[in-house]
Design a protein that fits this description.
- The complex is a heterotrimer.
- Chain A is built from 11 helices and 8 strands.
- Chain A is α/β, with parallel strands linked by helices.
- The longest helix of chain B is centred in the middle third of the chain and has 14 residues.
- Chain B is globular, with a radius of gyration of 14 Å.
- Chain C has a 9-stranded parallel sheet with strand order 5-4-3-2-1-9-8-7-6.
- In chain C, helix 4 packs parallel to helix 6 and helix 13 crosses helix 14.
- The radius of gyration of chain C is 25 Å and the shape is globular.
- Chain C starts with a helix and ends in a 9-residue tail after the last helix.
- Classes of the chains: A alpha/beta, B alpha/beta, C alpha/beta.
- The site of magnesium ion has 4 residues of chain A, from helix 4.
């Protein structure tokens, strides 16, 4: 059996080492990656994907730990993908989310994987999407994706999840103001965590007010919940709300959602294929180095070079 | 397609002690050398450490301990690693470990034991040279 | 700021001297100062350069471990606003810069307190008796990790750890053995314990009850500083809020019932060992102190009722003068905080009584005997800084638990300082040194800046949640490491003057694994033999009272007397309070 077939078999048999190895293949963007995804594709689409985002330190990981606990109690299996940023300077990353979930690390029904975004804008959602597929194919009922809500990743998380939860907390000060623009539109559910803190109510009303300002007609009205992730208070309500959203999606919105999703994914895939094949061609003919040199020596700017490439491609 | 491989390292603290200054400095140095670091936090059981290494599919495990419990905990960790067929993972250790114990630890598959005061550069080099990618 | 100062900063990276502590009536005569300044400039432009030509200075820039720039020479200019009466005062008087007591070491030496404990309660009991016979004046207990984390010796998490780094105490039985033949009214006992401090103190009280020693007579200290656990020592059992509650329970209980007990030892030591610099150690410790005062005030106690019993614990690190300045600044700053922020009136409320330990993290595994010298200088700094109590580390500690001979050398180091060096003959020996006063001011100023920032964040608890301390400490630790690796800082025997083979003069102490088996067997037997119905009853009651947010000391004492174990009690608290995972900042 080839490596791909072996991994695919392993994932379907829920072998944890195979799952881990398959994820690495995707993460590294190895040549086998598309093959694995292609072979598992049939077996995906069953899991409910929950995206959790919000500012640093708002309690996302702690909340996820409590969600896992509750989900496990009701017999559901859970996959977690925790994404952290790669340092643009060193290329290294410190992946610290799973520290809060270590209690579940030896539970057979839970699989937790930390990922660095490897500075990929746009690429993140593709890799994440495929990692979700691996976990999905391995039979996880619920898959939770954690990302820090800053800039690009907010939009990305919408692309990969069915339900998006935005986790905020009091005492993060100006952060809420700064992030509201990006974050307020994407949440299906809002959580004000650290409700044990004095100014939690204030944050709650602020978020509520911001949502009310959004008058756009929508069939799903996002609500704002309060939680204390440290003690687990409010988690049951949060799960109930997640379930409501899942029901709502099932009633049709899901199809719309899925169609839109399929479309963006197709667009992304085509884009990627085109770009990759063009670059591969240029590399093959040795043209790539020459073009790079042109930019380095300031003979031409990147855009003109790109134009040149495209012209050649179209006119042969 | 361009593959982008990174060395993934699990820095784990078995045992009950909480001296994580060394572990964190190591984590930071390896990160600054471009690696991806997964940190388990304090007080992890051998089972948790090995299961984490498996799920995260790391190339390297760094164990740090200062409580004196290495004689019991390290063999247990190495056993579990073998049991799960993760023989390709590079394991190194750091902490206050007496000389005569170091021999025993190397015998059970811990590649190197670094004492207090080891320069981080030495560690980075060691990992870069020995990690299987 | 004068133009010259700007230039100084720009060109030489020198710090602008800006001491606002003094008033208008300066110690130094304006005219004289100007003369000093002129003379200094002359010296710098004529004398110094020719010397530098012949003997270049070793570094371009000198700085303390905390990053305070160090100049070639200090003169009255550096403390131009110095006001003796306000800034220093007299020993035993506000602001206590020169010392807490009027006669300091002439009247009474510091307490020589060696932290010890390993293996079983019997072994430690023997060590205690030995130390008392060697002239030590106070006991100090190190517990093993399971005890520190609230696990009984037979818990699965305790595997391999029982008796390794301290003594194992799982129940009142073990504590009885530990103090067998040691009358509690004759000793003062310091317990290095935080999360389960209430349980260990309760055991001590229970033993006092059995020996017939009234509670007012119990003398000692529980570390009980749970706040620093969250960012420095990281031995946390419960989340921040209930942890602070437990610390406050002990402060409240002791204020009412154990007037001679120091309920909390607010600790910078672990902050320093975790990697902070001296300024951070000072600032974060005082910030914790402020938090305990505020939390206790909320219980309805008056500041002068409990503040006199608050005590502190600092590290003494390598940078000799910076450490001395830190101790002096700490006393002065705390006195000001208590007076100005909390309106304390009793002079004893303004006292910062401190215990100091030489810094474990400065000890090297390479050429371990060199550590004897490190410890000597660090202890000398503590004494010149006016400490009330001192622990000297043993030179073999970077290799193993200290052996008896090494512990003796450590204690002898203190005795040599006390009886041979002559430094104890007068008070605050370095007071008035331009450099020391300058550094003392700098320490205070920079620490105050941190405290202001922490206040602005909403206090210690929110700063913890934001990872503020963790980040500050991690950065300093990394910087220090880098300085050593790049050899900007010399560590003798580590990055310079190294040898092929280290010389260790004596055999290292090893704890044998049988200790664990014996201890576990003893504990299991005890659990079988006690009245388990009574135990269950009292644990249920504990659950109830924890739920109702009562002061837990009385019920914990009651529970321990039925031989409910440390682990059982902690478990009840865990179910109500929840568990805690540390916030990791690298
Ligand atoms: N007081 C309080 N603290 C909480 C609560 N939930 C989480 N925390 C604390 O907040 C801090 C951050 O929690 P995390 O779960 O790591 O937050 P996060 O959002 O995952 O953080 P990043 O992954 O770094 O963005 C930790 O110290 C938690 O203990 C809560 O409900 N109340
Ligand atoms: Mg997180």
């Amino acid at each position: 059996m080839g490596q791909v077939a072996q991994l695919v078999q392993g994932v379907l048999r829920r072998n944890r080492r195979s799952i881990a190895k398959a994820i690495t293949v995707i993460e590294n963007n190895e040549p086998e990656a598309p093959k694995i995804v292609a072979q598992l594709f049939q077996k995906t689409g069953k899991a409910h994907v929950i995206g959790i985002t919000g500012p640093t330190g708002s309690g996302k990981s702690t909340l996820i730990e409590k969600l896992i606990r509750e989900l496990r109690k009701s017999g559901k299996t859970v996959g977690v993908i925790a994404v952290d940023p790669t340092s643009p300077f060193t290329g290294g990353a410190f992946l610290g989310d799973r520290v809060r979930m270590q209690e579940h690390s030896t539970d057979e029904g839970v699989f937790i994987r930390s990922m660095a975004n490897r500075n990929a804008t746009g690429g993140l959602s593709r890799a994440t999407k495929d990692v979700i597929r691996i976990l999905d194919a391995s039979g996880k009922d619920v898959i939770i994706v954690e990302t820090v809500g800053a800039g690009q990743s907010e939009v990305e998380i919408v692309k990969v999840s069915n339900t998006v939860i935005v986790v905020l907390a009091p005492g993060l000060g100006d952060d809420i103001q700064a992030i509201k623009a990006g974050i307020m539109e994407i949440g299906d559910i809002f959580v004000v965590n650290k409700a044990d803190r004095q100014n939690a109510n204030k944050t709650w009303s602020e978020v509520q007010a911001m949502l009310e300002m959004n008058t756009e007609e929508k069939s799903w009205k996002p609500s704002v919940l309060k939680t204390k992730a440290l003690t687990g208070e409010g988690i049951a309500e949060l799960l109930a709300r997640i379930e409501e959203h899942r029901e709502y999606l099932k009633k049709g919105a899901f199809e719309v959602h899925r169609k839109g999703e399929a479309e963006t994914e197709l667009v992304e895939a085509i884009k990627q294929k085109i770009v990759e094949s063009i670059i591969a061609d240029l590399r093959h003919t040795g043209e790539w180095e020459k073009l790079k040199q042109k930019i380095l020596t300031k003979e031409a700017d990147p855009y003109s070079v790109a134009d040149e490439v495209l012209k050649k491609l179209v006119h042969g | 397609m361009t593959a982008e491989r990174k060395i993934r390292v699990l820095i784990a603290k078995p045992g009950l002690d909480s001296h994580d200054r060394g572990a964190k400095i190591v984590a930071r140095a390896l990160r600054d050398a471009g690696m991806e670091i997964i940190y388990t936090g304090l007080r992890q059981t051998p089972e948790q450490i090995v299961e984490t290494a498996l799920q995260e599919d790391v190339n390297v495990i760094g164990l740090s301990i200062l409580s004196g419990a290495h004689k019991v905990l390290f063999p247990k960790i190495m056993e579990l690693i073998k049991e799960k067929g993760m023989d390709d993972v590079l394991v190194f250790a750091g902490g206050i470990i007496p000389q005569e114990d170091i021999r025993d630890l190397k015998r059970i598959g811990i590649k190197e034991v670094f004492g207090p005061g080891t320069p981080t550069g030495t560690l980075v080099e060691f990992v870069q040279e020995n990690a299987k990618r | 700021m004068r133009v010259a100062d700007y230039l100084n900063i720009l060109l030489f990276n020198r710090e602008y001297v800006n001491i606002k502590i003094g008033g208008s009536n300066n110690m130094f005569d304006e005219r004289k100062l100007r003369e000093v300044s002129k003379e200094r400039q002359r010296w710098e432009t004529t004398k110094v350069p020719s010397w530098i030509e012949r003997h270049p200075e070793k570094k371009n820039k000198y700085s303390t471990v905390s990053g305070v720039q160090v100049k070639r020479l200090y003169t009255p200019e550096d403390i131009e606003h110095f006001d003796y009466v306000k800034d220093l005062g007299f020993p035993g008087e506000y602001p206590f810069t020169r010392g807490l007591h009027a006669t300091m070491y002439r009247g009474r030496l510091w307490t020589m307190r060696q932290f010890s404990g390993f293996g079983t309660a019997e072994q430690t009991n023997e060590r205690f008796k030995y130390l008392l016979s060697e002239g030590e004046t106070g006991l100090s207990i190190a517990f093993d990790y399971p005890t520190i984390m609230g696990y009984d010796s037979d818990h699965s998490m305790a595997t391999g750890e029982v008796g390794q780094c301290g003594v194992a105490v799982s129940s009142l039985k073990d504590m009885e053995t530990l103090f067998n033949g040691i009358p509690l009214n004759k000793v003062s006992t310091s317990m290095t314990i935080n999360g389960p401090a209430a349980m260990l103190l309760a055991m001590y009280i229970a033993i006092g009850d059995k020996q017939g020693v009234p509670r007012e007579k119990l003398d000692g200290t529980t570390q009980n500083d749970n706040l620093k656990e969250f960012f420095a020592q990281k031995l946390c059992l419960f989340p921040p809020k209930p942890s602070l509650k437990l610390s406050t329970d002990i402060i409240e209980y002791c204020t009412r019932h154990l007037p001679h007990w120091n309920p909390v030892s607010i600790s910078g030591y672990h902050i320093r060992e975790a990697g902070s610099n001296a300024v951070q150690e000072l600032a974060f410790t005082l910030a914790d102190g402020i938090a305990y005062v505020e939390s206790t005030l909320e219980r309805g106690l008056k500041v002068d009722e409990f503040a006199p019993r608050l005590s502190f614990f600092f590290a003494s690190h390598n940078d000799f003068f910076e450490e001395i300045a830190k101790f002096r600044a700490a006393r002065r700053l705390w006195a000001k905080i208590m007076k100005e922020r909390f309106n304390a009136e009793d002079p004893r409320s303004l006292w910062m009584r401190m215990h100091v330990q030489t810094s474990g993290c400065t000890l090297t595994a390479q050429q371990p005997v060199n550590n004897v010298m490190r410890v000597a200088f660090q202890s000398l700094a503590a004494v010149l800084g006016g400490t009330q109590s001192l622990h000297t580390n043993s030179f073999d500690e970077a290799l193993a638990l200290p052996c008896e001979e090494a512990v003796r050398v450590a204690l002898r180091t203190q005795q040599i300082i006390a009886y041979e060096s002559g430094v104890t003959d007068t008070i605050d020996q370095l007071g008035g040194s331009y450099y020391v006063e300058y550094l003392t001011n700098k320490m205070e100023e920079r620490a105050m800046r941190y405290i202001d920032r922490i206040d602005a964040m909403g206090g210690v608890s929110s700063a913890i949640e934001r990872g503020f301390f963790q980040k500050e400490i991690a950065d300093s630790a990394y910087l220090y490491q880098k300085e050593i690796e790049s050899r900007q800082r010399t560590l003798v025997g580590v990055n310079d003057y190294t040898v092929e083979k280290d010389w260790v003069p004596m055999e290292l102490l090893r704890v044998h694994p049988e200790v664990e088996e014996e201890q576990v067997a003893r504990l299991r037997k005890m659990k079988k033999e006690r009245d388990n119905r009574k135990v269950k009853e009292v644990l249920d009651k504990l659950h109830d009272e924890t739920d109702r947010d009562r002061n837990l000391m009385p019920i914990i004492i009651k529970a321990l007397k039925t031989y409910a174990t440390l682990g059982e009690i902690t478990e009840v608290l865990r179910t109500v309070f929840g568990e805690y995972r540390e916030l990791i900042v690298v």
